[in-house]
Design goal:
Elements lengths: L18 E6 L2 E6 L4 H7 L25 E2 L18 E3 L3 H16 L15 H8 L37 E3 L9 H10 L4 E4 L6 E4 L15 H5 L5 E3 H6 L4 E6 L8 E7 L2 E7 L12 H5 L14 E2 L8 E2 L2 H19 L4 E5 L5 H15 L4 E3 L6 H10 L17 E5 L3 H4 L1 H12 L3 E5 L14 E4 L6 H14 L5 H7 L2 H11 L6 H8 L3 H13 L3 E5 L1 H4 L4 H14 L9 E4 L6 H6 L6 E2 L3 E2 L3 H11 L11 H10 L4 E5 L3 H4 L3 H10 L2 E6 L11 E4 L8 E4 L4 E5 L11 H11 L9 H11 L8 H7 L1 E3 L43 E6 L24 E4 L1 H6 L7 E6 L3 E8 L7 E5 L27 E7 L5 H13 L11
Parallel strand pairs: 1-4, 14-15, 14-23, 16-17, 16-19, 17-18, 19-20, 23-24, 24-25, 29-33, 30-32
Antiparallel strand pairs: 1-2, 3-4, 5-8, 6-7, 9-10, 10-11, 12-13, 12-25, 21-22, 26-27, 27-28, 29-34, 30-33, 31-32, 31-34
């Protein structure tokens, strides 16, 4: 194996369809109009020397190394900023150019340390490469006089190099090696959109500076790595490269964090990961990354990772390390005994949205074929199940309508109940770039999120009260209908007109006007009317939404209301528009596609359908139960009632992630056998009887499906440290249960999926390797996938308008609980934090904090940083307060990344009427000063410590 090389063409690709032809070094070259001469030369195979140019950012023209000569023109223009034109005759290598370039390189190297042998970038330094490219062999200028390399030129008495900034846990900044090319500054602005870097000083004092000459850690830098990737020298270098050395081979794979689905090149030395470099051909991320995917992969080798199977009879007992065979036999005997005692339906399983499609498919196959029931569910139950229901009812498919590239054609962006800057940061960067180009932004969120506060972006923020989504979206529809903003031609052509008329009469009622609903929503009617007009008349309108929509008692209703909004304005079925759920976990879309719901087989086909079921029975050689199984909440209730006694949980920490923690504890405690298949002894494992060590995304082959329905390859980078990939573990567990599954490689599992699932018919590893990725549906009608859905018509035929009556949640504020708690995520942490808390990301978010408005804090005598008691009707916990006006009076907010917070001990059992998705986003609470952890937290911590004991291994006597 060797390092996979990517070509840097120096400047971005032109999208023009008009072609121009020019001559470069005697060769005719034809390129799209707007292409730089530098890129045209590169595409023809000629590499012009460059330092400040890279194809991830716009041309800058500062280094003066890429000079060229053009016949008939005076001077030597920069090839990066000079566009190709018809008839130009260009020379890239003449005596004059050679002298100029060598002189430029002499000036760079005269002001740069020449410690190449000991430099971490040795072998991967563009300055070094360009010195060779121009034939530089000597430097006429020494270090005498002013330069920016030595500290003494800045008032110091010693000759030391200028001090490095080591504050960031992942990369170092060495100002003495900065050549002031501005690539990092431009990457921060153009690619990331944070504007955290600048060039400070003048002349020899010029250098890259985070913020106002702050440290990187203390600045607004979000550690996305774009600056490190852009740097042509060792000024910005990953600490892993400094410690390990330059990589010698690489493998392209897909990130296992959020639903964006970024593709990375894992660069290695042997079986050690040196760094993760975002892959420019990744169609979801286009060469960009965030702090999690770029840097937070160290959990793979964390000391707390469990690598050997463990069992115990009771949760009060310490864990006993055993062989794989012993663990499988123990688990199978327990499950068989439970079914014999309580019946076939007394066991079930939960699939993982962090595992691959193939692994998820096998778990639901094991449950249906091996357990003999349909008691299978997945984390989508508690996040995006309303998306599946709402979009399937209105459009006919249960997934987003666009690809991420579509945002480049968007004129109006409406974000509802989502904060892409924190939860989907790489997509957020692409979105912010479009907003800086002039697209308008509307944000519906109780909190003033990072998207509202983005640099150079003006957003219309509608700060609605938690729980009033349906009322606000219906009020937007009211304005569109009553002000004559309906796209009537679209509705008549694509939708059922009689259903539209019924819906339009419903939303036109005065009680759904912005003025009438303001009393419950808290949204200024003028702002709401302006938002409706902008969305309806501003051109291509796209809606992006998240868990702030779905995790409500009316989650499905809100999704339907959003679909209504898109249909009534004609914003479906072309680039730049659509309804786009931002999926939380890396494979939550795939886990749904693979049949993880108790009523659906892979491909969203109901288990009761005889013809569909017979297909699976023939392929699996087993009779399937046609009755839908239990959802996660039903499993918990049945466990407490005594009829559900065994649970297999793969890659999901239900104790920390599911609502009403005390209820989950009671359910798990009642079960006779809980099998946890994961990387760490997570919170659910506190109540488990079998622990099967899992494998990370770096240790397996398979596929993930991201939020845009994009199926992408996951490739094994290192050998599984636990001995098996997760798909192999499930096969061995099934075998112990007496249900044989035979596969030699995950590609064979995908072949079976394709044979049984109409939307995956054309998917194969060969096709994914050839195309890089495909978006389902991928079949005979769309052999290379479907980037945009519903072109020319809806999948269900006619789009269906559905009336969305606003019904207030049963969770109400009152004298005892006057505030509303809502929850969300933060950039540096991921979901329940099992992975990110075991990396240096804890530097940014070491604990969950409660955001509270200054007015509410003053009333309760709470100061910033104080411990506060957070209590609801379900339970109480304590955490520190953060006083901020990001939340409105009457609303408090926290994250849920740390198990010691136990945020879900507060959330209630209320859930979406159609899907049982929990109402995480609306909980009535009270805040009061506290001295520290609650009794519940102390008891929980004590139980967790006791439960995680591992008995010492007794060596057998010789």
């Amino acid at each position: 194996m060797s390092l996979i090389q990517e070509t840097d063409f120096g400047t971005p690709k032109s999208k023009s369809e008009t072609m121009v032809t020019l001559t470069i070094d005697g060769n005719q070259v034809t390129v799209p109009e707007g292409t730089s001469i530098m890129r045209a030369a590169m595409e023809a195979g000629t590499q012009i020397p460059k330092l400040c140019a890279t194809d991830m950012v716009d041309a800058f023209g500062s280094c003066r190394l890429c000079l060229i000569e053009i016949e008939g023109r005076a001077g030597t223009p920069a090839s990066c900023t000079t566009p190709a034109m018809n008839g130009l005759v260009v020379h890239t290598q003449t005596e004059r150019l050679k002298k100029l370039r060598k002189g430029v390189m002499e000036l760079y190297t005269s002001d740069h340390p020449l410690d190449c042998l000991t430099c971490a970038a040795n072998g991967d330094c563009e300055l070094q490469d360009m010195a060779g490219a121009v034939g530089l062999r000597d430097v006429r200028y020494g270090y005498e006089g002013e330069n920016h390399v030595f500290a003494k030129s800045h008032g110091c008495e010693n000759d030391n190099w200028m001090p490095k900034d080591e504050s960031n846990p992942y990369f170092t900044y060495d100002p003495s090696k900065c050549i002031v090319c501005s690539r990092c500054v431009r990457a921060c602005e153009e690619v990331q959109g944070t504007f955290a870097l600048t060039i400070s000083g003048r002349g020899f004092d010029s250098r890259v500076s985070p913020g106002m000459s702050e440290s990187f850690l203390g600045s607004e830098c979000v550690s996305c790595g774009a600056c490190v990737q852009a740097c042509p020298t060792a000024t910005l270098t990953e600490k892993s490269v400094i410690e390990i050395g330059q990589p010698e081979h690489s493998v392209v794979t897909t990130c296992a964090y959020c639903g964006v689905g970024c593709v990375f090149k894992a660069e290695m030395r042997g079986e050690e990961v040196v760094r993760m470099v975002p892959w420019k051909d990744g169609k979801a991320n286009r060469g960009h990354s965030c702090v999690k995917g770029r840097f937070a992969w160290g959990y793979t080798t964390h000391k707390e990772r469990i690598l050997k199977p463990m069992i115990r009879e009771r949760i009060e007992d310490p864990w006993q390390e055993v062989s794989w065979d012993e663990a499988f036999n123990f688990a199978a005997a327990k499950f068989k005994g439970i079914q014999q005692k309580y019946g076939r339906d007394s066991v079930g399983g939960i699939t993982s949205s962090r595992c691959t499609n193939e692994e998820t498919y096998l778990v639901q196959k094991l449950i249906r074929g091996g357990f003999g029931n349909n008691n299978v569910d997945t984390c989508a139950r508690v996040c995006h199940s309303p998306t599946g229901y709402g979009l399937s009812q209105t459009f006919g498919t249960s997934a987003g309508t666009q690809d991420f590239d579509s945002v480049e054609d968007t004129d109006v962006v409406m974000i509802i109940g989502a904060n892409p800057a924190s939860a989907h940061p790489v997509f957020a960067s692409r979105l912010k770039k479009r907003l800086r180009q002039g697209a308008k932004l509307i944000v519906l969120d109780p909190r003033r999120t990072e998207m509202v506060e983005s640099p150079h972006v003006k957003a219309l923020h509608l700060p609605l009260m938690p729980g009033t989504n349906v009322a606000v979206v219906t009020a937007l529809a009211h304005v569109i209908v009553t002000e004559g903003l309906v796209n009537e031609s679209f509705v008549r052509e694509r939708c059922d007109w009689s259903e539209f008329e019924e819906w339009a009469a419903f939303v036109a009622q005065e009680k759904y006007s912005p003025e009438a609903t303001a009393i419950m929503t808290g949204v200024d009617p003028k702002d709401l009317r302006e938002a409706a007009r902008i969305y309806a008349t501003g051109g291509n309108g796209a809606i992006y939404y998240g868990l702030g929509v779905t995790e409500h008692s009316q989650g499905s209703t809100t999704v339907i209301a959003i679909a209504n909004l898109a249909m009534v304005t004609g914003n479906i079925g072309r680039p730049g528009v659509g309804v786009n759920p931002l999926r939380g976990q890396n494979n939550v879309q795939g886990s749904c596609d693979m049949g993880s719901f108790p009523h659906e087989l892979p491909g969203y086909r109901h288990i009761s359908g005889d013809a569909v079921r017979e297909q699976f029975e023939a392929m699996w050689n087993v009779k399937l139960n046609k009755e839908p199984g239990l959802r996660i909440p039903n499993m918990f209730d049945a466990a407490i009632e005594g009829s559900f006694m065994g649970l297999y949980v793969q890659g999901e920490d239900i104790l920390q992630s599911d609502p009403n923690t005390k209820h989950v504890v009671a359910a798990l405690s009642a079960m006779e056998c809980v099998i946890v298949h994961d990387l760490f002894l997570n919170e659910t494992a506190n109540y488990a009887h079998v622990f099967l060590p899992g494998s990370t995304f770096l240790e397996k082959d398979g596929t993930f499906t991201n939020a845009e329905r994009r199926i992408q390859r996951v490739r094994k980078v290192v050998t599984p440290r636990n001995g098996y990939a997760d798909w192999e573990v499930t096969i061995l567990l099934a075998k112990a249960m007496g249900f044989e599954m035979h596969y030699n490689h995950p590609s064979e599992i995908m072949d079976e999926i394709a044979a049984l699932t109409p939307t995956f018919t054309g998917v194969s590893y060969a096709k994914l390797d050839e195309l890089g990725s495909v978006q389902w549906p991928c079949n005979e009608k769309a052999p290379e996938g479907t980037p945009i859905m519903h072109i020319g018509g809806f999948v269900r035929g006619k789009g269906k308008f559905i009336v969305t009556e606003y019904v207030a949640t049963d969770e109400r504020t009152g004298p005892r609980y006057p505030l509303l708690l809502t929850t969300g995520r933060i950039l540096s942490q991921y979901n329940v934090g099992a992975q990110t808390r075991r990396t240096e990301n804890v530097v940014w978010h070491a604990e969950d904090r409660l955001e509270i408005h200054p007015h509410d804090a003053e009333l309760r005598g709470v100061r910033d940083g104080d411990w506060v008691r957070l209590a609801s009707r379900a339970g109480e916990t304590t955490l520190r307060a953060e006083i901020t006006d990001r939340v409105a009076p009457g609303v408090v907010y926290t994250t849920f990344h740390h198990p010691d917070t136990q945020a879900n001990v507060i959330t209630t059992d209320f859930s979406d009427w159609a899907t049982n998705c929990p109402e995480y986003k609306v909980t009535a609470v009270q805040i009061s000063p506290s001295n520290g952890p609650s009794d519940w937290q102390k008891a929980y911590d004590e139980q967790a410590r006791h439960s995680r004991r591992i008995a010492p291994v007794v060596e057998a006597a010789e």
